């Protein structure tokens, strides 16, 4: 389990699912949001690859995420899942792949979650960078 609390921790109350993605071979991940002790929110990302490879990460922040443009993490090498928080001014997340292609994600309530396809797990097609873009690009 990975945790980041920045002066806040999970508060009592139920987290609700915000995003869910499916990857190859039954792999899946879900992103949930619940209250934090500082009045902000905690993001819980649960991922399941197979019975031996599953986990959860927790990030809690105050009323607003105001750090870097994005706080992104990935599960697996090459990345099977990409998840994270983005600032309010970030309108799009671009994931670039080793073959030169890219995909765009639109944050939902300041959060993103993405799953690779079977083909994107090959090193020559794997995700290699993630960029945060404002409305003006």
Descriptive keywords:
single chain, 137 residues, 11 strands
Describe this structure in words.
By secondary structure, the chain is mostly beta strands. About 0% of the residues lie in helices and about 50% in strands. The strands form three sheets. Strands 1-5-4-3-2 form a five-stranded mixed β-sheet, with no helix packed on it. Strands 6-7-10 form a three-stranded antiparallel β-sheet, with no helix packed on it. The protein has a three-stranded antiparallel β-sheet with strand order 9-8-11, with no helix packed on it. Strand 6 and strand 7 form a beta hairpin. The termini are far apart.
Describe the strand arrangement of the main beta sheet, using strand numbers: 1-5-4-3-2
State the low-pLDDT regions, or none: none
Helix content: under 10%
What is the number of strand segments? 11
Q: What is the H-and-E element order?
A: EEEEEEEEEEE
What oligomeric state do these chains adopt?
single chain
The major pleated sheet works out as: 5 strands, mixed
Q: What integer value in Å does the Rg equal?
A: 15 Å
Tertiary shape: flat
SS summary, helix count = 0
